Description:
The complex is a heterotrimer. Chain A is α+β, with helices and mostly antiparallel strands. Chain A has three domains: 2-103, no CATH class; 133-259, no CATH class; 261-422, no CATH class. In chain A, 47% of the residues lie in helices and 13% in strands. Chain B is mostly helical. Chain B has a single domain (7-373), classed as Amino acid/polyamine transporter I (Up-down Bundle), CATH 1.20.1740.10. The relative contact order of chain B is 0.22. Chain C is an alpha/beta fold. Chain C has two domains: 40-244; 257-400, Nutrient germinant receptor protein C, domain 3 (GMP Synthetase, Chain A, domain 3, 2-Layer Sandwich), CATH 3.30.300.210. Chain C is 31% helix and 32% strand. Chain C has ten helices and 15 strands. In chain C, β10 and β11 form a beta hairpin. Classes of the chains: A alpha+beta, B mainly alpha, C alpha/beta. Chains in contact: A-B, A-C, B-C. At the B-C interface, α5 and α9 of B face α1, α5, α6 and α9 of C.
Amino acid sequence: xxxxxxxxxxxxxxxxxxxxxxxxxxxxxxxxxxxxxxxxxxxxxxxxxxxxxxxxxxxxxxxxxxxxxxxxxxxxxxxxxxxxxxxxxxxxxxxxxxxxxxxxxxxxxxxxxxxxxxxxxxxxxxxxxxxxxxxxxxxxxxxxxxxxxxxxxxxxxxxxxxxxxxxxxxxxxxxxxxxxxxxxxxxxxxxxxxxxxxxxxxxxxxxxxxxxxxxxxxxxxxxxxxxxxxxxxxxxxxxxxxxxxxxxxxxxxxxxxxxxxxxxxxxxxxxxxxxxxxxxxxxxxxxxxxxxxxxxxxxxxxxxxxxxxxxxxxxxxxxxxxxxxxxxxxxxxxxxxxxxxxxxxxxxxxxxxxxxxxxxxxxxxxxxxxxxxxxxxxxxxxxxxxxxxxxxxxxxxxxxxxxxxxxxxxxxxxxxxxxxxxxxxxxxxxxxxxxxxxxxxxxxxxxxxxxxxxxxxxxxxxxxxxxx
Amino acid sequence: xxxxxxxxxxxxxxxxxxxxxxxxxxxxxxxxxxxxxxxxxxxxxxxxxxxxxxxxxxxxxxxxxxxxxxxxxxxxxxxxxxxxxxxxxxxxxxxxxxxxxxxxxxxxxxxxxxxxxxxxxxxxxxxxxxxxxxxxxxxxxxxxxxxxxxxxxxxxxxxxxxxxxxxxxxxxxxxxxxxxxxxxxxxxxxxxxxxxxxxxxxxxxxxxxxxxxxxxxxxxxxxxxxxxxxxxxxxxxxxxxxxxxxxxxxxxxxxxxxxxxxxxxxxxxxxxxxxxxxxxxxxxxxxxxxxxxxxxxxxxxxxxxxxxxxxxxxxxxxxxxxxxxxxxxxxxxxxxxxxxxxxxxxxxxxxxxxxxxxxxxxxxxxxxxxxxxx
Amino acid sequence: xxxxxxxxxxxxxxxxxxxxxxxxxxxxxxxxxxxxxxxxxxxxxxxxxxxxxxxxxxxxxxxxxxxxxxxxxxxxxxxxxxxxxxxxxxxxxxxxxxxxxxxxxxxxxxxxxxxxxxxxxxxxxxxxxxxxxxxxxxxxxxxxxxxxxxxxxxxxxxxxxxxxxxxxxxxxxxxxxxxxxxxxxxxxxxxxxxxxxxxxxxxxxxxxxxxxxxxxxxxxxxxxxxxxxxxxxxxxxxxxxxxxxxxxxxxxxxxxxxxxxxxxxxxxxxxxxxxxxxxxxxxxxxxxxxxxxxxxxxxxxxxxxxxxxxxxxxxxxxxxxxxxxxxxxxxxxxxxxxxxxxxxxxxxxxxxxxxxxxxxxxxxxxxxxxxxxxxxxxxxxxxxxxxxxxxxxxxxxxxx
Lengths: 468, 374, 400
C-alpha cells in the first residue's frame, strides 16, 4: 500500500529512477532522484549489501545489512517517504511490508567552506558558511565543543520543506527567547523558504521593515561569539547567511576585526569613526542643502564665496542638484553591484571620475555637491548591512533640509530616534545599551574595554525583562 | 503607552527640563524687570524650587505605590483632584506654548527659517505626539540618546562665550534694591518648577540607590548650567540684555565674528533646541496624563484622542489669542501667577502630607498592594 | 512563493488611501510654507559703508559676485559695490537691494564702516537697527574712517582683494594696539548706555601707494594702498567728539586692554653687540589695576601699570612681534626707566585729552558705579561734567 501510494505520487517524474533488486527470489524496490544522490553511495551502501545478503531481503534483514554503511530511517507513512525521497535519500520498498527504508545517499554538490565576501577580516578566521545546513551546523559545533550547544531542526515551507536549525547554548541563552523563536518559526506559513532572509522577515518586529532587527552573519566564528553572548542562531538550508537574535543596533557598529585586534583603543576608534561616517552619510547632504537654502550664515565667508562661485549658473535648485548627485551615485552603486567584477571596476571609474567631472564642467552640477554626495556615499559603506536604509534616510534628510532647513533635520533625527528607541525584540531594546543605558553592556558598545574586563555576558541579549 | 521609567532617565530629564527652554526669551524678560541682578531673581526661584523638589522627593519616599491621581483623589476627593488636574493641564499647555512660540521666534529671527505657526507646530507636534503615545519610557530613552549632545552643545556655547565675558559687569549688586529682585522672582515664577512632572510618575519610580540624592544633584547641575549661561549673557550684553529675544543664539554668536568662522554656533543652538522639544514633549505627556485623570481615560485609544484634542488646541490657540502677551501680562506680571503657583508650589509642598494621609486612609481599610493585585 | 494573506476589506483600503493622500497634502503644504531663498537669489553683504549726503543716508554694500564662466574657488570670486540712498538707514539698505533685485543678506557682514559725514549723527540710535536684528552678528567690526566710507570700499589693498576682509584683518590685527574690543558693534552701542556714555572706534585712513590697479574692463581704476588704523575716534552719548592722535591713543590703550602691546624706542641703550645704540623694546605682558574712589569732591582714578618688556627681534619666521628670550642683562635700568618715562608721558597725554574734551573714555564713571552704586548715580546727576573733577594718577612699574 505504501509503495503503491508513493509511486502514484511520483508517477511520471523524469528524474525518478527505480530499480528492482532480486535476492533469493524476493524483490526489493529501490528508488531515488537522479542528480540528488551519489550513485557510488547507492551502489556501495544500498545495492551491494542487499545483493550480497544470504537470506531473504526482508525489512529487518536489509536494515541490519545497510546499517553497516549508511544512515537509514524507518518509514511507515507516505508523507515521510516523500519528504525523505525529495531530500535526496534512496527509498527501499519491500514485498508484503508496509514499511520502507530511507537511506542517506545524498550526493548534492555544495560550495566549499571558503572566506565569504561579506564580514571580511584582515586578521582572524576565514571560514565562511555555505548553503548546506549540516555543514553550517558542523562549523558551529566544531567551535562549541560542549553538551550545552543545542540544536532544534524544523521544517519550514509547504513546498520547499526547508530545513531550519535553531541553535543556542543551554544555560546561556534565555529559555523564553528560545521558545518564542522556535514557536514563531513553527508558525510560519509560507510556500517556500529560499533564503534565511525569508525567515528573518517573520522574526523582525519592525512594522516598517526599515530597521533590520535580525542579525545576518556569514562567518561561523562570529555566530559562535553571538551564541556565547546568549543569542540564538538560526541556520537555514540553502542559505549561507545565519540569523542571530535578539539583534541590537550597536551590533552594526561592531566588526569582527574589533575583536581580533587585541588593542581595544583601535576598536573604539574604529567604532567612533563608523558612527561619524554614518552621521556624515545620512545628514551631510541635507545639512549642505539647508545651509544653501536657509542658513548660509553658518558657512565661513570665504568658504561661502567658494560655494557661490561653484554653484553659479547651475540650472538646478540646491535641493534638486543634491538629489541628482545622490541618485547618480545610487544608480552607479546599483549597476556596479550587478555587473561582472571587471566591468564593475571600469564602471566605477567612468562613473566617479568621468561622469562627475563632466557634469561639473558642463555646469550641470556644482563641484561641492558632487564632493559632498561622494563623501556621503562612501560613508554609507562603513555599515554595509544598512547601506540601503541609510541611502533612503539620506534622501529623506536631504528633502527635509531643502524644505524645512536644519529644524527639519533636527525634527527628522528626533523622529527616527523616537521610533528606534521604541523598538524592541523579545524584550531587548533595539538601542540597548545606550537607550536604555546598561552599564555592563556598555563595556563593549561604542567604546570597547579590554577583553579581560568583559567578565559578564551582555545583559540585553540574554534576558527578557522590563527594560525602560 | 509604556509609562515605566528608569532612575537614570528621570535624572537626565530633570537636567534637561531645568535647563531647557529657559534660555529663549526668559533671560531678556528677567533682565528687563531686574536689570543686572536678574540672575539673582532666577537663583531665588531655583532655591524655592529646590525646596519644593525636596518635598516631592519626600513624597516619593513616603509613597507606597500609589499614583498621583490616587493620592489626590484620596485626600481632595475625586472632584477636587479633577479640578487640580485641570489646572495642571492648563499650566502645562501654557508652558509648552510659551516654549514653542519662543522656539519659533528663535528659528525664524536667528536661523532664517521663516514660516507660519501651523507649518512650524505640525512637525513638532508629530514628533512630540509620537513620543507621548509611546509613553514616558520613550521620552526617557530619547533623552538618553540626546543628552550627551545637548550637554556638549551647552559646554560649546559656554566656551565660545567665555572669551569676552567681563564678570565685573554684574556689579553693583542690588543697585535698585533687593525688593525689585524678589518681586521679579515672583513675577517669573511661571517659568519655573519644571520638575513637577515627577508627580505624574508617582507609583512608577523604584526607590533604590540614593534616588533623592541623585535627582537633587541632577537638579543642581541643571541650575548651574542655566545660571552660568544667564550670568554670561548678562555680562556680555549688559544694558542691552533686555532687547534680546533669544538669549542663547545671541550669546553663542558673540565671538564668531571673523570671516574664518561661520555661525557654527547655530549647530550648537539647534542641538540645544532639541532639549526644548524634549521638555515640551514631557510636558505634553504630563498634560495628557492630567487630562486623562480628569476624563477617566485609561486606554491607548483614549490617550490618542486626548492628545489630538490638545494638538488642535496647540494649533488654533496662538492663531486666535496673543498667547505670549497673555503669558507675560497675566501669568508673569498679572494675577494669573497665583493660579499657577497653586499647582507649581502649593501642591508639591503639600504632597508629603497628602501621601501620608492617603497611606493612612489605605492602611485603615485594606492593604493597598492587595487591592491592586486582587 | 506567496505569503498567505487575507485580502484587506475594501473600506479599510480606501481609508488608507485617503489617509495617505491627506498626509501627502499636509506634508506638501508644510514643506511649501517655509520661505526659501537660494544663494543665487541673495546679495550676500560682506561689508557696509555708511555716509551722510544731504541729510540722506548713503549705504555702500560690498557683495559677493561670482565671476561668470569660472569653475569656482574663492580666487575666482570678486566683490561688487552696490549703493543705496534713503532718509533712514533701513531705507537706504532696502534701496541697495531694490536696485540689485536680490534678497538682502546681512548675516555675513563682517564690517560696518562709518564715513566722516556720520560724525554729526546720533549713532547709538542708528546702529540699534543692527543690534535689534538677531541674524546680524553682534560681534561685527565697527570703525570710522577719514573721508567717505564709499571711497574706502572703492579702494583695494594688497592684503585682500575684498576690502571688507582686508579691513577686518587690519583692524583686528592692529586692534592689539588700538584695543580691538571697542571695535565691535555691540560693545560700541552698549558702552553708550553705561554711565560714562562714551565709546571709541578705530579710525581708518586710506594711504595711497600709487600702484593703482586698473580693472579688467579698463573703465575704472581702483586705488591701491594701505589702511592706517592707528588713531581712535571718541564718541559720547552717541555722538562723535574727537580723534585721539597717535600718542593719545597709545597712552589710552595702555590703560584699557590687558592684551594690547606697544613698542618703545630707547636711545643710547646697550646693544647686543656691546655698542650704545637705539633699541626697540616691546611689551610682552602687562597688568592694569585701576582703582577709583571719591576724594572729597573730586574723583581719584589711580592706575597701577605693571609691564614686562623685551627687546625686539625678527625670528626665523619673520614675525616681528616676537622678542628675544629673557636675558636680564639686555633690559637694563636705563631701558626700564626710559620705557617708564615714555609710558607716563603717553598716558598723561590721554588723561589730558579726556579732561579737555570732557569725555570719560577711560570709563571712570562705570568703575565708580560698580563700586559705589546709587551714591555715584547721585553724584553724576549733580556733576554732569564730572570728567573735569577726575584726578588721574599713574604708577608704572617696568620689569623684564
